Amino acid sequence: MSILRTLLASCILLLLGGTVLTAATDGFRAFTTETARRVAVLRHPPQVPSVSLETQTGARINLADLRGKWVLVDFIYTRCISYCQVLGGEFAQLQDQLAAPIAQDRLVLLSISFDPRHDTPAELAAYQERFRRRGTGWLAARPLRKDDLTQLLRTFGVTVIPDELGGYVHNTAITIVDPQGRLVQILDMGDPKTVAQAVLRNMGR
Amino acid sequence: MIAIVRQHAGYVAVILFLVLLLPPLRRVLESSMALQMLVQVPLLIGAGYLWRDSVPAPVTALIERWNQHGVTGLVLTTLAGAVWMLPRSLDAAVSEPWVAVAKFITVPLLIGLPLGLSWPHMGFVIRGVFLLELIATFFRLGWLYMVSPMRLCNNYLLDDQQRTGEYMLVIGAVILAGVFGKLLWGRFDSGP
After folding, report:
1. Please, what CATH class does the domain formed by A47-204 belong to?
2. From chain A, which residues contact B within 8 Å (Cβ)?
3. Which residue range is the domain that position B134 belongs to?
């Protein structure tokens, strides 16, 4: 009898454990935090907070002011020597590939710095210059209050940790925000063509 | 030393658990992937394992009726272990306070304690299956952590992840050597 009881208990545990594991991995789709936030965003697009930012020209804008346009957001720090360099180059390329919607004022690219103490408007402008910024349509900005930065990082799911060289390591991605100010999709960097297609697909919907 | 730990296992378990809860120690152990995965979590499992002697005899007797050869306990240990092996869980245990609470409760109670209660009832074959699966898991995950070009945890650096992978291969090899040693020179008198 003890064997049957053990079998029964084990089967119940397997069912329960399977359910927990399914829930903990979003149906075996997300094993890492990075995938998990992509899955979560697709399911429930979160609202982007209305925080004020200072741009590369020193102008103050509020993220809420960008409602009505599509926004492509990435997070950077200008001293970065690895990923952000790639991201910067990618944003410059996206300016070309998405020139039409940018010219129609339906789309804007926005790089937000998570190192606001160092990234003054001058530093942000220099960062863009490094990628031979073409005309308008690409804003680089820093949040002015620490709370705002925390809120932004939390909503966009960006984790920043110090590395061993005095810089930072952070998960990198390009995020699409729709005209209602909702974060609708998170995309990998490294392939601007796919990002451009995804943006156009979202805009065409 | 081992004799003292055995004699006062319950106290050792509680002290070990409370020490692991100390915020400065938590900060240190959770600052690196290797320390969290290969030191903090195993010590929490150890605390749960040692706590088995504090479970009242009637409860142990009841559990035993549902735990022939320790199979049920092994299933629970394996499933709970699988959840805490997900990179996502380790990440969340650092960034989300409620996941940290869940970790400190479930790792000792759902991994360590069932293992402690079941191990004495596990025969040679079941122990062998458990240990070989454990070794295989260390090798598989260790290899994945070593070669993955992506960071699997947003809270940890890539070189930390690669180092963790190397340590896991070493630990897997040590357990394997232990199993070989036992097979070649050991005595198999424990367990039914």
Report:
1. alpha beta
2. 2-3, 5-6, 8-10, 13-14, 16-18, 20-21, 24-25, 30-34, 36, 159, 161, 163-164, 169, 171
3. 2-185
Cross-chain residue pair A159–B155, CB shorter than 8 Å: yes
Give Cα B87 to chain centroid, integer Å.
15
Distance between CA B185 and CA A140 in Å, rounded? 68
H runs (alpha helix) in chain A: 2-24, 33-43, 83-97, 99-103, 121-130, 146-156, 192-204
Q: Which residues of chain B have pLDDT under 70?
A: 188-192
Alpha carbon distance B181, A164 (integer Å): 41
Q: Is A153 helix (H, G, I), strand (E, B) or coil?
A: helix
Interior CA angle at B119 toward A2 and B134, to 5°? 115
pLDDT of res. A11: 95
**How many structural domains comprise chain B?**
1
ipTM of this predicted complex?
0.85
| Paired strand residues for A176 | A72, A185
Domain assignment present for residue B191? The answer is no
Q: Is the dihedral of CA B178, B180, B181, B182 positive or negative?
A: positive
pTM of the model: 0.87
In the predicted model, what is the mean pLDDT of chain A? Answer: 89
A135-184 confidence digits (pLDDT tens): 678 999 999 999 999 999 999 999 998 887 778 888 888 999 999 999 99
